[in-house]
Amino acid sequence: MQTLETHAIQTESKTHMPSLYLQQHKAFIRWVDIGDTGPVVIWLPGIGFPALQNFIGIVTDLVFPTARSILIDPLGAGRSDPVRGLSIIEHADAVVEVLEHLGCSDCTVVGYSMGGAIAAEVTVRRPDLVGHLILAEGNLLTGGGPGTRFMAEVSASDFRDTRLPEMLKGLLEGALKEDSVDDFILASWARIDPEAFYDMARALVALRPELEADVLGLELPRDYIFGANNLENPEERASKNLPDPARLRAAGVRVHEHKGVGHELMLADPKGFAALIAPLITS
User: Fold this and answer.
1) Mean pLDDT across the stretch 258-274?
2) β-pairing verdict for 254-258 and 68-73
């Protein structure tokens, strides 16, 4: 555990936002690099979320171990440039380019929701770069969850002109009632490129059918974090696209429950998530 002094030094270090130009996409991918010592931890956020805002409450919590945290905005999210039509594999390949550019290997890769699908593809495709995979309600099953199906079931123009504005209106109503999760999502999605956002949802619906089996077949350490509400209540919205905990355990994946939350996990309870994930980083 870090002291307050060393924690402050770590947090203040390298908080600029470097970038890498990806020639094949004619776009910049950007990230935040926090800390100089300890294990390298790669953080990949939920759909359309800026990585820093998604995870800042975790990497700056005093229970979190000293580490070098690299928080990557996938193409189209946060400060990275929007790119149309990318598959999850192409998102993963962009992350791989960042890791190679930084000279990172044997990383712990943490992926939340859509970031989990990207993290899984990074690990399956380049296990030489990953020493430990942690999925926080990461998408592994093709077909998408209810949220992404809702986004992807209309045309791109209908999503841009009707569906996204309706979603933002609902989030605004929640934010005005001081719902912190709705406020965070609103702040993320209100500024996103609608076409790139739509294509992210379509990419999640079209995950490779073999992805879950590929992850279950990996030999490196793997952890999967569920929101306990999704396990306790099978009718929870997000639970219908989650892998089976028993199947995960049978393949050697360590399964954990974040008490008191559903799919929102660290967005609703950053301190609880930090306490849960901190011992996994050094295990």
Assistant:
1) 96
2) unpaired
